Each structure stands twice: as C-alpha cells, then as structure tokens.
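Problem 12. The chain below contains 234 residues. Write out its predicted structure in token notation.
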Amino acid sequence: MDTSTLTESSIFICRTGTGEKHPLVLGVANGGTTVTLTPTQPFIRGGSYELYLNCSIKSKGGKALAQAMRMPFTIFAPPPDNSRYTLWTGSMPASVAPDKEWQIDFSREIDVSTLADTTIFICKAGTGERHRVTVGVASGPDNRATAVRVTPVQPYTGGGSYVLYIEKSLKSKSDFFLRQGIRLPFLVSIKQPLSRTALKQRRLPALRQYGHDFLRQRNSWDIFRTFAAMPDVD
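Solution.
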C-alpha cells in the first residue's frame, strides 16, 4: 500500500447522518497490507458511525481502490439501567411524529457546560442503541436558558418505541443537580406528520404536556414541566 495516500480525507469515520468526523490516528501494519484506525477520543456508547474509504487510496504499484466503500457500525452499549431514572408520568399522546422535536422546561437556568448528548439522549427501547439527536438551549419565557430542545438528526422509525433519558448530572447555573434522572418512553406513529404550514393553517397550537412541580430541596432541582413541540400527527 502507498502509505502517502492514507490521509484523513481518504479514510475516515463519521457520525451517522452527519459530516462530523471522529478524530483518528492512522497506522499501517503487516508489511503495509493492514490499516489501523485508533480513535483519539472514545466513541459514544450506543452511537452509530460509518467508516469511509475512497478511491484515492492506492497500492505501491499505483493501482487505486476499485470502488469507494462505506461500512456502518454501532458501538455496543448495554441498555440504560431504568432503576436510575424516574418514569415520567405526565400526560402523553398515543404516538408522536417521526420527526418529533422535544422541548423540556426546567425550574432553574441550565449550566450549558453540562448540556450534551450524553446528559440528554434517546435510545431505542430495550437497547443501548442511541438515536442521533441534537441538544440545544431554547430560551424560556423570560429569555433565560431554562429550556432544552431535543431534535432528531434523522426521523425515528415509524412504529418504533424509544425512550428519552435525562441524566441527573445535568446541572443548573446555580450548581443545583437533578435529584434523579428522568426517562420518558414514547411510541412513533406510522402516519406521516402534518407540515408546519398545514398546522398553522389549521391554527393548531403546539401540543404541551405539563408535568409535576416537584418540591425543591437543598442542593437539588427538578423538571418543572415538559412539553412536546410541533409537528404532531393528525
């Protein structure tokens, strides 16, 4: 193998559904017939990735790879221990749209440094396989960082069962932690979601499910309310 053709643009790993490359160190073994890829940061447990090889990779004789290749893989992770999470008991629709965007309101302003797809994430029910989502701040009614929006990068599978998890390591700006993690199971509809335009035309409000206003305790905080944002199924 011509090792000069082994570069981060000719062989690389990306998170599924994104162009986000995972940092790697490339190496060669077995006399140049084997390529090693060593991550410089751990893969996310339950995360889905894809290994890419393109035709710029050549042998020592100058022969290029006959065909570009893509190899998907998932990092093994055991299912989350549900005993560590309080089951969300607020009202829920029977099913949600495949592109459902969740918004979560908290009783205190969030420490955004603790907000990540490791503190709020979604798994396929009964597995540790995570569904790729983006997690970001959505300003609350007073324009403070008291709300979080969880958006799927790719649609959920119609008819599939998922669970949204919130880790208790999520912290408020005033250094309060959740007393316990939260889990919210949900079922995805096999129906096609209405477009946002259609919803506006029908003047349907965003569907909201309000939860419990938990008692405050010293050095702890809890979800004040949770609601699901549009779009929803017909």
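Discussion. The first helix runs from residue 196 to 201. Students who got a different answer should revisit the alignment rule from Section 12.3.
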